[in-house]
Amino acid sequence: MTYKEFTRLLGKAGTTAKEFAELLKKNPNSITNNASKGKVPNELGVIAALIGEMEEKGVDYRSVLATIDIQARKVRGNAKLGKFGGSPQETLF
């Protein structure tokens, strides 16, 4: 699915990419970064299509999603403030 179609479906559901990410307990950047690719993964497109249809039919998809124990994924990598990839920055000289 194209990112443009994805955002259209989110609009149909009355939500934004950031709110969509929060509903799924994802980092908002992991959703909006798909804009540069021009397409979204299939599972995100399917979810967007379903919540768009649910909203159109008067089904409160937010309450449905609230009943699911969605676990936030752990952040990948070891990067911390002042470090790159988990390694301390060293001077070049």
Notes on the protein architecture:
Helix 1 (3-12) runs parallel beside helix 5 (42-56). The mean pLDDT is 87. With 93 residues, the protein is mainly α. The chain has one domain. The chain is globular and about 60 Å long. Strands 1-2 form a two-stranded antiparallel ribbon. It has six helices and two strands, in the order ααααααββ. It has helices at 3-12, 17-23, 28-32, 34-37, 42-56, 61-66, and strands spanning 83-84, 87-88.
Number of domains: 1
**Helicity level, as a percent range?**
40-55%
Order of helices and strands, N to C?
HHHHHHEE
From the N-terminal CA to the C-terminal CA, the straight-line distance is: 48 Å
Strand order of the largest sheet: 1-2
Instruction: Determine Rg (CA atoms, Å).
Output: 17 Å
Overall geometry comes to globular
Low-confidence stretches: none
Biggest sheet overview: 2 strands, antiparallel
**Which structural category fits the helices and strands?**
mainly alpha
Blueprint (SSEs and pairs):
Blueprint: H1 3-12, H2 17-23, H3 28-32, H4 34-37, H5 42-56, H6 61-66, E1 83-84, E2 87-88
Antiparallel strand pairs: 1-2
Helix pairs in contact: 1-5
Q: Notable features of this structure?
A:
two-stranded antiparallel sheet, 2 strands, 6 helices, about 90 residues, mainly alpha
Short description:
The chain has 93 residues and is mainly α. The protein is built from 6 helices and 2 strands; from the N terminus they run H-H-H-H-H-H-E-E. The protein has one domain.
